[in-house]
Amino acid sequence: MEEKVKQKLVQYQQIEEQLKQFNNFFQELNEKSAEISGVIQALEDLKKTPTDKKILVPIASGIFIQGVLKDNKEAVLTVGEGVCARKTIDETKKLLNKRLMDVEAHKAEVARIIQQLGEVEIQLEEELEKYV
Question: Is 121:12 a contact under the CB 8 Å cutoff?
Fold first, then answer.
């Protein structure tokens, strides 16, 4: 019986660790989703901004330089290591919306796994309480 309790306790600890990892991953996906949504909104705002208007250009987290908007119709995207391509704002938004859909699909799958692990964790808790 003592061996059975040890096994269940080890199982419980493993499930707890997996839950922690999946919750962290879910949080990362939430942040990625918010980031993509923010970029889509920024592109929409940029499209409405008149050319030759002064804007702040981010060069690092929380660091900006002043610039002048010369083109509000296209964006330059990194498509590979050291390779960039010009896309219209609408094409760029379409790509970003696809990425957003992929992230949301991953979030749904991770949420499903978290729920399953949570159910197993509850079941193990109940089984372990019998031995207390």
Answer: yes
52: left (phi over 0), alpha (psi -120 to 50) or beta: left
Tell me the whole-structure pTM to 2 decimals: 0.84
Of 127, 113, 94, nearest in space to 8 by CA: 127
* Residue type (1 letter), 96: L
Residue 87 domain flag: yes
Report whether pLDDT(38) > 90.
yes
Q: Cα-flanking dihedrals φ and ψ of residue 57, to 5°?
A: -110, 120
CATH of the domain at 32: 1.10.287.370
- Whether residue 59 is contained in a domain is answered as no
Find how far residue 115's CA is from the centre of its chain: 19
Longest dimension (CA), the chain: 78
For residue 9, the surrounding DSSP H or E stretch is helix 2-48
Rounded to 5°, angle at Cα 74 from 70 and 75: 100
Look at the chain and report how many structural domains it folds into: 1
Residue ranges making up the domain that contains 82 = 2-47+73-129
